[in-house]
Amino acid sequence: MGDRGLAVSLADAPLRGRTLDEIAERGGGRSALLLSWARKPPAGVDKLGLEVGLADAFGRLRTRDAIPFLIANITLQRGLFYRADIWMKTPQVVEGALPAVAALIRIGPEASRSLIRKFPTLSAEDRLAAIFVVSRISGVPEAQDFLNSVIGGARLEAFWAGEGRSR
C-alpha cells in the first residue's frame, strides 16, 4: 500500500484495525512517516479520522517521539459525537473513547513524566485526562507527589467554593 493509501485507510474507521495490524507487523518502519503526518496531514484525508488512527498507531508502536502530538490531542474522542460525560464512565470506556489517552498509557513512564511537566499549561479538560493517564501508569516515583498535589489543590478549591456558597 502506498503512502496515500495508508493515510486514507488509517483515517477510515472500518479499515483502521487491519491497517494498524499491517503497521504493527512492520514495527517502527513507518514511524517517521506517521510522525510527519502528525505535523502535517496529507491533503484530502479526513483529518479527525487520521488523528484517531495516528494515536492508535503510536500507542500500538509505543512511539515516544509522538508524545507531544498525543498530549496536544489528549481529549480527542473516537467517533462522530462528543461525549461530555466521558469522565463518568469506567476506565476501560475512557481508554476506548480517547485514543491519545490509551496511547500515552501504553507508552508508559516517559509519557507520564511529560504530562506532569506539561500539566500547568493544560486546559481543565486536558488536565483531567492527564491526571487519568498519570494515575494509570506505574513505575513513576514522582507521580505520587504530583497526584497528591492535585488532590490538595482540588480540596482547597472545594473549601473556598463552599465558603462562597454559604454567603
Q: What keyword list fits this structure?
A:
single chain; elongated; 167 residues; mainly alpha
Description:
It is a single chain. The longest helix is centred in the C-terminal third of the chain and has 24 residues, at 142-165. The mean pLDDT is 93. The protein is mainly alpha-helical and 167 residues long. It has helices at residues 3-11, 13-25, 31-39, 47-61, 67-72, 91-97, 99-107, 109-118, 124-136, 142-165. It starts with a helix and ends with a helix. Helix 3 packs antiparallel against helix 4 (47-61), helix 4 packs parallel to helix 7 (99-107) and helix 7 (99-107) packs parallel to helix 9 (124-136). It is built from 10 helices and no strands.
Structural class: mainly alpha
Q: What's the multimeric state? A: single chain
Largest sheet: number of strands, sense, barrel closure: none
Radius of gyration: 18 Å
Count of helical stretches: 10
Helix content: 55-70%
Order of helices and strands: HHHHHHHHHH
Distance between the termini: 66 Å
Question: Which stretches are low in confidence, meaning pLDDT under 50 for 5 or more residues running?
Answer: none
What general form does the structure show? Answer: elongated
Proportion of strand residues: under 5%
How confident is the prediction overall: mean pLDDT?
93
Q: How many strands? A: 0
Secondary structure blueprint with pairings:
Blueprint: H1 3-11, H2 13-25, H3 31-39, H4 47-61, H5 67-72, H6 91-97, H7 99-107, H8 109-118, H9 124-136, H10 142-165
Helix pairs in contact: 1-2, 1-4, 2-4, 3-4, 4-7, 6-7, 7-9, 8-9
